[in-house]
Structure formats: C-alpha cells, structure tokens
Specification:
Distance between the termini: 68 Å
Radius of gyration: 26 Å
Number of domains: 4
CATH superfamily of the largest domain: 4-hydroxy-3-methylbut-2-enyl diphosphate reductase, catalytic domain
CATH architecture of the largest domain: 3-Layer(aba) Sandwich
Largest sheet: 5 strands, mixed
Number of strands: 21
CATH topology of the largest domain: Cobalt-precorrin-4 Transmethylase, domain 1
Shape: globular
Strand order of the largest sheet: 8-9-21-16-17
C-alpha cells in the first residue's frame, strides 16, 4: 500500500506551503521510510493510501505550521481544501495518536509522584485539615480499624466520619495539574474548559490565581467577567479570544468531541493539559471495545452532566449511543425493544428524543446492547439496569444466545472505584447511633448527591446536603440543597440541632470526591462554635485521641 505522511506540530497545526501570493498549498511526503503514527487508510486523488502523521521535530524541514481555523479562512489551493476535508474527521485522533490502546491521557500519580503541596500550601483554609489528615493516616497504618468509622469526641458533640471520604485520585490529579500549570507558565494565558471539579471553592481559588473558565458546566459560553454570552458570535466570548499561544486545561470529567475539535482548530495543545480522569477514560476504552463488535452503547448517566456528555460524545464516535437516566427509563427502553414496526419507532421518539446519537435506528440499533455508566453514580442502580436489560434480552433471544446480544464484559465495573469505596464506607457508618448526617460537596456534584441519597434513606430530613459551613446558619437552622433531575439545585431552610438535644449530639459527616478536607474541618469548627467552651474538648485532645485508636 502506498503511503502519505503529513506533519503536525504539538499545537495541532498543519504543516503547509505558502507561495508568493500568500496562497496555502498542501505539503505531504509520499512513501516515506518512516512509518510511525499510522492514522488510517484514506482515499486521496482517487487512490488508496496509508496515512501517517509526522510530528514537529521529526525531520520536517519544509513549510510552516498553520492553525486549522486560519487555513479554513485563508486563501488556499483546491487540493489543500480537499485534503483538509479528508483529515477533519480524524483531527482528534491525530492529536492523541502517539498513545497506544493501553495508554491513558493522565495516569494516576503514585505516592512519590504526588504534588499536594502545590495546592495545599497555597490555599490552606480550603485544603488542609489536621483532623482529616490524622484520620487518613490511621486508614493507611492501622489495618485492623482501617475500614471502621472514626468518632471525634469533642464533648458536647461527637462527629462520626467514615473511613473513606473526600478527594479521589482523579480529583487530586486534576487539581495538581491546574496549580502546576499556573506555576509553570506564569506568562501564559491559562483557561479551563469548564469547572475543574464540582466544587466552587476550588474553582474560585483557581480563578483568583488568573485561570479563566471558557464555559459553564452546562456549556454556556462566558466572557472575561464570568458572565453568560447570549450569542456565540459575540467577540467578548472567551472562546473567541483564545489563540495558539494560550493553554486550555480539560477538566476531570473529560470533554466532548465538539469542544476538543474547536480547541484543535484554534491550535490549542490538548494532551499536556488534559486532566481527564483515567477512570472516565476507562469507560471510553470499554465503549470502543464493544462498539467494534457491533454493540450499541447505553449510558446510565445524567444527561446534563459533563461526564455523561463527554462519554456520549465519545461513544458517538464509535457507533450508536443512548443515555438512560435510571431504571424507569431502562424499562421504557424495554418497551421499545419488545415493540415492532411503527410502534417501536413511535415509542422510541416519545421517550428518547434528543437522548440518542444522530441516525439512531431503533429497528436495528437495539438488537445488540452494552451498558456503561457515569462513574459517579450508585453502583447498585447500574447493576439493576444491567440485570433488567439482561433478563429482557434473554426473554427475547433465549439464554443460549444472550452473549450474542448483550455485552457482559463490563459487569458494572465502569463505576469509579473511589466512588464505590466512599459509598461502602458511608454505609458502614450508618450502623452508628446518630442524630444527624451532613454530606458536604458542590451542589452540582453527582457523587456527593449519591452519598446524600444513602443518608436520606436512613435519616430522612435529618440528612442534609450542604456545600460548606456557610450553610450552617445557626445551631437550630441549616440550608439544605435539593438536587433536581434537570441539574439545577434549589435550597430550603431546615431545623438542625435542637437546643434541648441530649448531649452529646452525634453527627455523621462525609464529603464527596470533590470536597477538600479543609471544608470538612470548617464545618466541624462552625458547629463547635455553637456550644459553650466549657462543654467542649480541645482540638489537641481530640487529635491525641486519634493517635491512640487501635
């Protein structure tokens, strides 16, 4: 097979020629001896070629590197226009082509590689907590009690904390990457695609350090002041101001193909500033595997959540895809699967309009199905959906043919294991004798809401979902967030600790995967402040207690 080699630089700019009339033309190398970075077999000038990508620094001496956006707008030959049309569907692959299938964009750092000081020393109130540090030290060093909840005895009030809570590795990775980028590139303009994580205190601190957000978590474009842009053509939109010299960090949730393509065309480097959690990317790899075997991807996720949007966008790159919010929607899909002809298509459009990939055909694309999930959901809910759909497939095709029509390789393990560990640790804490439960995290944090759901089933209105100590307005009043299916969060004022409560008051506290330790300690300090000093034990005494746990 004849070959063509095309050159790009690290900013996704294409190597082209330019004549004296400032007209751009293509520059390719035919049948190069080097055959690294295979892209695809494509048709060029009526003939099939194996296309390879050469990167800046790999013996490219002719031409200049120009952004895709500039080339599209500029004067160019018809041949270059045709070549760009051929390459455009592959631009994202080109940006990450140096990865093999086993590589991850941003692997979790091990203990020696961690750089927590880059953020904890710069924002002590947000990230540092003597209490949480002591508890996590016990988890690592005292095996016998490493999974047991810890009781902090302050006298008039006791706090019960699960063995596992707070930051997961994906969040730590993303935060480190953001603060390191700010530190390492002081003269660069640095943007975040959207919120780094679902925690306003972390995002606001980064914003104060000069990092700007291109869009909201719902994809609404922003200007320099963080205000919504009404029309994307507005020149004040930050999306319309970025250029190839700038840096854009992709958050832990990942990014849609549409957003990545927009960045690539502007000449923005992706790989070095992509903080996508590797467990999210693990889901994407699972999707690629089953899609290549002809299975349609069913995503158990919240359709408005950034991670689900990114996963859906990724899935659409490989085959048909559909989003299911919960078991009820899975059962509606079951009706569609069992229906025939016109009824099938009508039911599908009624229940799943705008939740499916373009060109989705319910007559053929629901024959072979595979289930993955947004990584921050409750695992048992995904398992319920898997079990329901598996039984449906068996009902339709028979047990002997199940594997031909239902993909079993994931088995629900596309859930983030840190999410699962936090959920399991919380459930173990529910056996304690407790008066209240506080679940702390960003009000748009999916994994925090899952933790709240666990507590709400046990404590009812004595379980409270809060963002920080600011929600605790007094001893007997607390502002609770009401999480909605649309992705918005309302709030209500609830009663909290009654003045006549028996002593000690026992409060369960946990934090979502994007909740910094410092926020948890601030909540404890706020509640302690409602009690007379003579009724409280000191922080030093409580820390000494922790050292003696065995």
């Amino acid at each position: 097979m004849p070959t063509i080699t095309i050159s790009f630089d690290s900013n996704n700019r294409l190597n082209v020629l330019k004549d004296e009339a400032n007209c751009y033309d293509y520059f390719v190398i035919y049948d190069s001896e080097s055959k690294k970075n295979f892209l695809s077999t494509l048709i060029w000038e009526g003939k099939k070629y194996d296309f390879y990508i050469n990167y800046e620094g790999e013996n490219v001496q002719k031409g200049e590197y120009v952004t895709w956006e500039k080339l599209r707008a500029g004067k160019k030959s018809q041949a270059l226009t045709t070549l760009m049309d051929i390459l455009e569907p592959h631009l994202i692959n080109i940006s990450y082509l140096k990865f093999n299938e086993r590589d991850y964009i941003y692997r979790f750092r091990n203990k020696k590689e961690r750089n927590t000081q880059i953020y904890s020393d710069n924002a002590v109130d947000i990230y540092q907590s003597k209490l949480c540090t002591a508890i996590k030290l016990i988890r690592r060093t005292k095996e016998k009690i490493s999974n047991n909840p810890i009781t902090l005895n302050f006298g008039a009030v006791e706090y019960i904390l699960p063995s596992h809570f707070g930051f997961c590795l994906g969040v730590q990775n993303a935060i480190e990457r953001a603060y390191e980028t700010i530190a390492n590139y002081p003269k660069k303009t640095i943007y975040m695609l959207s919120e780094l994580i679902h925690n306003p205190f972390v995002n606001n601190d980064l914003n104060k350090r000069g990092l700007k957000y291109l869009q909201t978590d719902q994809g609404q474009w922003l200007n320099m002041d963080g205000e919504h842009i009404m029309e994307n053509s507005d020149p004040s939109a930050l999306w319309n101001q970025i250029n190839a010299d700038d840096i854009v960090i992709i958050p832990a949730f990942g990014a849609t193909h549409e957003d990545k393509l927009r960045l690539i065309k502007k000449g923005i480097a992706l790989k070095d500033f992509d903080a996508t959690c590797m467990l999210v990317e693990k889901v994407w790899k699972a999707i690629k595997e089953h899609s290549e075997k002809g299975f349609t991807t069913l995503i158990h996720g919240k359709y408005y959540h950034e991670e689900t949007k990114a996963t859906f966008s990724n899935a659409c790159n490989y085959g048909p895809a559909l989003i299911l919010a919960d078991l009820d929607e899975a059962k509606l899909l079951g009706k569609v699967i069992l229906a025939n002809g016109k009824e099938k298509r009508q039911l599908f459009e009624k229940y799943f309009s705008k939740r499916h990939s373009n060109g989705f055909n319910p007559d053929t694309d629901l024959e072979k199905i595979a289930v993955v999930n947004q990584t921050t959901l409750l695992r048992n809910l995904t398992i319920e959906i898997i079990n329901y759909l598996r039984d449906l497939i068996i009902q339709r095709f028979g047990e002997a043919n199940k594997e031909d029509y239902f993909w079993e390789n994931e088995k629900g393990d596309t859930l983030c294991y840190a999410t699962q560990v936090n959920q399991d640790a919380l459930r173990k804490s529910l056996d304690e004798n407790l008066d209240h439960a506080l679940v702390i995290g960003g009000k748009n944090s999916s994994n925090t809401y899952q933790l709240y759901q666990i507590c709400q089933k046990r404590f009812g209105d004595q379980a409270h979902y809060i963002q920080s100590e600011a929600n605790i307005t007094s001893m007997d009043s607390i502002t609770h967030y009401i999480y909605s299916k649309s992705g918005s969060a309302n709030e209500e004022t609830r009663s909290f600790i009654e003045l006549t409560s028996k002593k000690p008051v026992r409060i369960l506290i946990t934090g979502g995967a994007s909740c910094p330790d410092g926020i948890i300690q601030q909540a404890i300090s706020k509640i302690n402040g409602f009690f007379p000093n003579e009724e409280l034990r000191s922080m030093e005494n409580v820390l000494e207690d922790i050292k003696t746990f065995d």
